[in-house]
Structure to design on (189 residues):
């Protein structure tokens, strides 16, 4: 399948839009003009606008959730779990916004990516994946605790207290860091 490049009028193949740019490039003029303009529009709209908007609304929603859940005294176990999930999700969303949305907006606008942003992205890249792992496994722990509460309510009473839930959260956090430890050693070299 082919498409028309709006700038040059030339036809481009579908394969030319599927290769992802290197995340460490700083949008030099040669890399910006090497990709067809339709691919630049696509990445700007998808990563810059759509994903950026989702990140901003997600950050605001998670902050509101933490504020509301911190006032909940009737169900502290569920509140602790959901607040930990909101914190992990906020970390992931903030880093996603820096790593992808902000970069594509700057590239599309023609502004050079500041070296400080490249430096920040390089050193927070492992944290992005740690936050992603943390979010996923906290969701699994919450789902398992809900399953226990519904299917085995009497057995769940022994395992579903605030101390055990905090321990589960600490274990998942340690697992996320240890699992992504090789990413930290790669970026430190």
């Amino acid at each position: 399948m082919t498409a028309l490049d709006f700038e040059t009028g030339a036809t481009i193949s579908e394969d030319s839009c599927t290769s992802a740019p290197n995340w460490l490039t700083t949008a030099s003029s040669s890399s910006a003009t090497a990709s067809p303009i339709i691919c630049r529009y696509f990445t700007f709209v998808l990563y810059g606008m759509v994903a950026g908007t989702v990140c901003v609304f997600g950050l605001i929603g998670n902050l509101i959730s933490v504020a509301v859940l911190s006032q909940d005294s009737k169900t502290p176990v569920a509140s602790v779990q959901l607040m930990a999930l909101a914190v992990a999700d906020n970390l992931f969303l903030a880093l996603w916004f820096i790593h992808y949305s902000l970069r594509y907006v700057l590239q599309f606008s023609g502004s050079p990516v500041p070296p400080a942003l490249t430096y920040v992205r390089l050193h927070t890249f492992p944290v992005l994946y740690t936050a992603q792992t943390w979010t996923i496994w906290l969701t699994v722990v919450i789902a398992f605790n809900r399953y226990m509460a519904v299917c085995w309510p009497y057995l769940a009473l022994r395992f579903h207290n605030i101390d055990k839930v905090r321990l589960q959260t600490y274990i998942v956090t340690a697992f996320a860091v240890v699992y992504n430890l090789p990413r930290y050693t790669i970026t430190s070299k």
